[in-house]
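New to this. Comment on this protein:
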Amino acid sequence: MRLFNRRRARGGQLRQADSADSAHLVEFARERVGVEAFVEPPTAVSTTTVVFVAGTGEWTRRRMRDARAAHELANRLGVPSYDAAVVGYPQRMRDWNSRAAARRPSADGDSGALS
């Protein structure tokens, strides 16, 4: 018996994947080129998730029932899938995050542009 089950959300239940999660991933994959799927194992605070990364580095993450369901969805969409814990994430995803952070204005209102 676990004394501290951190995998429980409010109300004692983890939010499970639903059809809206799958629908979002399907739309993401259909609207972008070069998409790959990176399946993430469950953690102490989250169920299994999958990250879809486009060729540009743009990405999205959604919950899945389990790793098998994530790989099956990717296969149905013709998207290569990998275990993120084994292969990690592509550099283009980190590059996308860096570019997005550079575009956001700072908290003090400075846009980051040089005068």
Notes: Residues 19-31 form the longest helix (13 residues).
